Model the fold of this input.
Amino acid sequence: MGDTPPREDSLTSLCVGCGLCCDGSMYRHVEVGGDDRIEILERAGLVFSTREDVTSFRQPCSAFGAGCCSVYPSRPSVCRDYRCLLLRRHEAGEVSDGEARAIVARTTALRDRVRPGLRALVGSDGPESLASLYRLTLAQFEALPDPAGARREHGELLLDVAALRVLLAREFEPRDSRSHQPEESEP
Ligand code: SF4
Ligand code: SF4
Done:
């Protein structure tokens, strides 16, 4: 998950200012393990829940702000170990530094357009994930007398949402992660 206080190696500076794996764009929940310092994380505002013996906290992560992880020294082990697909490809030399930074810049620019747009539509100022905001928006449209008209009226925003989801799925989401739950897999 986003490492904003920089790690030792320069490659992970790609994460600085990104935070797509912390801000609810990619995930709705993050699972924690037995070695994690839950009490410290709770003091930072993280809210944990346990279901079927799995403890997790919701995203957007309340420790993430202004591109930074405020609990960096005590961040959960899954956050320490996390590498999105782009970061792993970057570290493997498959994607150049410039290309990787351009992908992050393009994706975060879309995120920064889409999230406020969806929030304004659904009237939410709460900590909603991207998937939740999108679902709320579509449900709101469907409740209107003319859902197709509403979708046309906000077509540009919906196209941005689609472009953002494609970028996230294609460039960022690891396919072999067992530690995180992609948004779409959540109820
Ligand atoms: S999504 Fe990838 S590049 Fe962005 S902060 Fe997370 S690990 Fe780093
Ligand atoms: S604890 Fe830190 S690294 Fe982990 S999701 Fe929250 S902000 Fe990201």
